Amino acid sequence: MTKWLIPAFTASLVLAGCSSVPRGSIPVVDSGTSASANRMDNVKVYGSSNGQQGSQAQAQAQAIPEDSGVVVMVPGGVGGSMPLDTSSAPISSQPIQSEPIQMNSTQGDNTPSTSSAPSISSSTQSAGGLAADEQLDGPVLALLTTAQQQQAGGDLNGAASSLERAQRIAPREPQVLYNLAQVRLAQGDAAQAEQFARRGLSYASGRPALQASLWDLIAQSRQMQGDAAGAAQARERAKVNL
Amino acid sequence: MTRPKSPRSRSKRRKTRGSRPWLGWAVKLGLVGLVVFAGFAVYLDAVVQEKFSGKRWTVPAKVYARPLELFVGEKLSKSDFLKELDALGYRRENSVSGPGAVSVNGNSINLYSRGFQFYESAEPSQKVNVRFSGDYVAGLSQVGGGKLSVARLEPLLIGGLYPAHQEDRVLVKLDQVPPTLIQTLVAVEDRDFFEHHGVSPKSIARAVWVNASSGALRQGGSTLTQQLVKNFYLTNERSLTRKATEAMMALLLELHYDKNEILEAYFNEVFLGQDGNRAIHGFGLASQYFFSQPIAELKLDQMALLVGMVKGPTYYNPRRHPERATVRRNLILDMLAEQGVVSVEEATAAKARPLGVTSKGSMANSSFPAFLDLVKRQLREDYKEADLTEEGLRIFTSFDPIMQIKAEESLTGTLKRLSGRKGVDQVEAGMVVTNPETGEVQALIGSRQRGYAGFNRALDAVRPIGSLVKPAVYLTALERPSEYTLTTMMEDKAFSVKGQDGQVWSPQNYDRKSHGRIYLYQGLVNSYNLSTAKLGLQVGVPNVLKTLQRLGMQREWPAYPSMLLGAGSLSPMEVADMYSTLANGGFNTPLRGIRSVLTAEGEPLKRYPYKIQQRFDPGAIYLLQNAMQRVMREGTGRSVYNQLPRSLNLAGKTGTSNDSRDSWFAGFGQDLLAVVWLGRDDNGPTPLTGATGALQVWTSFMAKADPLPLDMPQPDNVVQAWVDPKTGQGSDSSCPGAVQMPYIRGSEPVAGSACGIQAPVDSVMDWVRGWIE
């Protein structure tokens, strides 16, 4: 058997020499297990938004381009709260109010809690930093922040996906629904934007500023769907509630 | 092509040994032979290169469960959390050393997550500390670091979408393979791998020696390259010709590709087991399949076991033949110590370890065919079959293995408890579990038999829904607050109508009695057929049908009055769709099982976004939910509170079709909705009503799953009013027996005057009552 192989080998050697592929140029299918470390290039970005609360503000300030208009408020951050401007949706021709996040701190009694967990969940809402209306849990705030970064970077699908993640964690938080509506509007899905804003309204009782913003979003959505009368009506409600 | 040529070339060579006069001829013949042979070599070379340079394998799509999210305040019990970690193959250690390890210290758990690429972002691999308090997550931080807002575990792999030949693998790159695993494989299968050129005369000689001296076929002389060639290019035929072709191809392969590429291909190609119709190929998948761990985390004993199985994956199957597998593993470990790959101490320690394969029936080693069936159906609407079975897509679903196991346990346990009743053993089951707040399907049961991959009753058992239809009748009425409120007086008495088809229809109550004057809501709460049918006829059968369609029902039912009592048929999934609109404040959400799809490389491909549509006035839904909560408190569903705390607000409805052929229950809390159907495949009668059958499964499930109490915020157009329990007239909170009911603003009865002394005395009365009791 081996004897037979000697000419075989020489022959193939000669012939193959001409046709051989240079080493190293062989394409290798890369679909190894997803957990492999070499596909984690953007871990750092995520990690920063997810990391220690104290250093969060700085990390995010670096990650966000200055002109995007997104500033992130950090609960329990060193310097108290900074406004979280949600006006990054580029679609509307009207100025979008930034009220949904900058709330008056007068309603402390009627804040829908985002989870029915016992008081332990409020440990991240530290004293003084956060307006009373915004009882956003740590995870929800972190995910809203991530979503806003993605939206600012033009990744609307990623932003919507992060917001849905937030919605699964806090399904009754109108802020999440507000942001979801905003992203849908930016994606051109005005009908869904209106629906999410309406869903948000059903959880926003006692939060007039947020209600106004939601009505304003409904007005924009209706405008976009060609419903001028409906938009005007919604705009009226946006005013009344203020 | 190979066969006719090689014997010819052999025969020519024999002739060249003839006498000198033939030399010229011989040389010529030899040359011809060489040319023919060279042609064959060229052909083989093309074969070798063609298959090795292109896409070497097709990889079935992988389906993942939802990743478990971790955040402070999350409702999650420690035991469920540990179950999930076990399913993900986390090793219990005293102090976490690397990814995939967990250490438990009372209510404080440290784990080293593995990291994962999700649709919206990558989750880093990190050391996380989770603290539990009761059934809640009380703390989340990085070990040795600050607080964490939110973190997720890797999702559990729950299955794949396999092509016809059903080869499955998880591709690995060589740099993901632990060096010890490479050393072990080489030491056991091909000691000279890094020296030879594809075939190894040395190992053939060694094999001959070993086999001769032991008198048995113990060792093969095939190199890893030859084994790869055999698996990759050739059939299982045993012949000298094939052996020769194999050797030649091995040489050619080595000529073109370096050792590492060949080794990587070997690691992905080798067959290591059979799981039903699915062939387990490669160490990447084998590591998942046997240990639920990625290959990079394998320990010495696990590596030795897998390498030992190469010789005979069926014979040494560690689940089927643990003794054989252990012997083989220990033999390998000895061999490693002998060759100096590991120290004798390391080998001894590894030999002392149990096999450690995940056991059958554990979360890691269960199949969930009903849910996978749903995923496949949804995917087939968007993808070609080949895309699903060959491209290695990653499918992210909403499947919750914890919920699934609880649902399965509830079904099995309840049927066992009911098994004394005659006929229960013939009863089949379907069950759907969703989160109404997100519209996501969390669990699905297609049969009472766990892991059964046939008829999926959750999706395909289309059966008469009985009284499950009634909420639609009442919702139709409650949408007209000027005509109907929850306390409108109704007459529950026998009647007959002539339908459009000319047939006379005379509905009857389940207990064959009439109940006289009742409140509207009591017809639903007690599931009275007479008053419900009457109400349905008053509001109009076509209008009830419209309500059903707005709820999400997509079938065309004829507008016969019998529809009002549930003659129409639906699958459990369709019922879940309708009821989630009721649970979700009147917002309809198309039920989803898939969240997103990534390519094999982790690139976002498609998202299945959350969509909602408001279909009903929240006020009407609020009133209906109130009535459906009374079903549970005081009506046909009240047995639920024999097992569940009364603080847990739930809403639901029983359903029973004629002769108890179908036993239904559909109901929900705030974040959990479940629909249960029990019945026979042959549609025969069962001994179970909705309350005695399906409701029992549902209750058992809710007790395990522990949902949030239903708590719909009261819409602006709803007011609460006190009414007299008998007359339906307005009353006051101070009056004995007065009940508080919600009304659409403007439809509430005029408030009655206070009874006895004025309000402040209420507290005194309570105080007195406290004394008396």
TrEMBL record, chain A:
InterPro entries on file: TPR-like_helical_dom_sf
Biased composition (Low complexity): 111-127
Superkingdom of origin: Bacteria
Signal peptide stretch: 1-16
Annotated region (Disordered), positions in chain: 100-130
Assigned keywords, A-Z: Signal
Pfam families in alphabetical order: TPR_19
Name of the protein this chain belongs to: Uncharacterized protein
The species this protein was found in: Pseudomonas marincola
